[in-house]
UniProtKB/TrEMBL annotation:
A Gene Ontology term for the protein's cellular component: cytoplasm
GO molecular function, one term: ATP binding
Full protein name: Probable alpha-L-glutamate ligase
UniProt keyword annotation of Lipid biosynthesis present: no
Key words of the record: ATP-binding, Ligase, Magnesium, Manganese, Metal-binding, Nucleotide-binding, Protein biosynthesis, Ribonucleoprotein, Ribosomal protein
């Protein structure tokens, strides 16, 4: 098979591992900088051009698109879909998961466990917004934040009101969520591929840090999932329409609660914590599905 990895940096661990795994399994793998692609969208023969040349026909693409380039990155994926190329995660599903509000609304509609969440841009009654999520302590998130950036824990209603007012001054959209104290600054990252959890790890925040992101000094360790946690992760991926994703779950007194679904999960932490060759499992899934299902959307939506 001829596989393209859409990634801005070929030296990143996840990109390198996918290249290694693909080549070890006998495939030809190219890394393409998403932002350097440009597209011919007006002809009856759509193409993606790169370095002055049309790209060759690929059997599959693996999007590794950062949150800051979601709009252009999904346009490139959509162009590949129009060309009949299989994408492990389709453009519509990536866009859906990157919209934090939309993803929470979709999961709520399906009855999946979520922290109590409020959404606001310029609430007239900040006190009522806080009351609806159970009051302080609360977690306040910028809708566009990633990797723990723009996420603040407010331990009192007064502090929460001050932070919300500050975000309002920046004309930012915010989510306000209940703080799950019993999680103890830890969460669970479940890697779902092809409707199955293939690996899971516990991420523990650094001392004094409520965010568990590995980028912020968190540590990762192997964990055993409960059947309910496994079902929750699989269902979240299904609701988003993602064939490959990371589902972040909190353990609460009232069951697993989904924090986020990530369409471009990093592989370094979970491979180290579990000892599993996750990259090869992703390539093997592509082997099984690329020629069977192809792309569903054909660039629509």
């Amino acid at each position: 098979m001829k596989i393209a990895i859409l990634s801005r940096n070929p030296r990143l661990y996840s990109t390198r591992r996918l290249v290694e795994a693909g080549e070890q399994l006998g495939h030809e793998v190219d890394v393409i900088d998403t932002m350097h692609c440009y597209m011919d969208i007006t002809s009856s023969n759509p193409s993606v051009r790169y370095n002055g040349q049309p790209l060759p026909k690929y059997d599959a693409v693996i999007p590794r698109i950062g949150a800051s380039v979601t709009f252009y990155g999904t346009a490139v994926v959509r162009q590949f879909e129009m060309m009949g190329t299989y994408s492990i995660n389709e453009s519509v599903a990536i866009s859906r998961s990157r919209d934090k509000l939309r993803s929470l609304q979709l999961m709520s509609r399906k009855g999946l466990g979520l922290p109590k969440t409020g959404f606001a841009h310029h609430p007239d009654k900040i006190g009522d917004l806080l009351k609806n999520v159970g009051g302080a302590p609360v977690v306040i998130k910028l809708l566009e934040g990633t990797q723990g950036i723009g996420v603040v824990l407010a331990e009192s209603n007064k502090t929460a009101e001050s932070i919300i007012e500050a975000f309002m001054g920046l004309k930012a959209n915010i989510l306000v969520q209940e703080y799950i104290k019993e999680a103890g600054g830890a969460d669970i990252r479940c890697l779902v591929v092809g409707g199955k959890v293939i690996a899971a790890m516990k991420r523990q925040g650094a001392e004094g840090e409520f965010r568990s992101n590995l980028h912020r000094g968190g540590t990762a360790s192997l964990i055993r999932l409960s059947p309910e946690e496994r079902r929750t992760a699989v269902e979240a991926a299904k609701v988003m329409g993602l064939n490959m994703c990371g589902v972040d779950i909190l353990r609460s007194n009232h069951g697993p609660l989904i924090m986020e679904v990530n369409s471009s999960p990093g592989l370094e932490g979970i491979e180290a914590a579990t000892g599993k060759d996750v990259a090869s499992m992703i390539i093997q899934h592509i082997e099984k599905t690329a020629f069977l299902s192809n792309t569903k959307t054909k660039g629509k939506g």
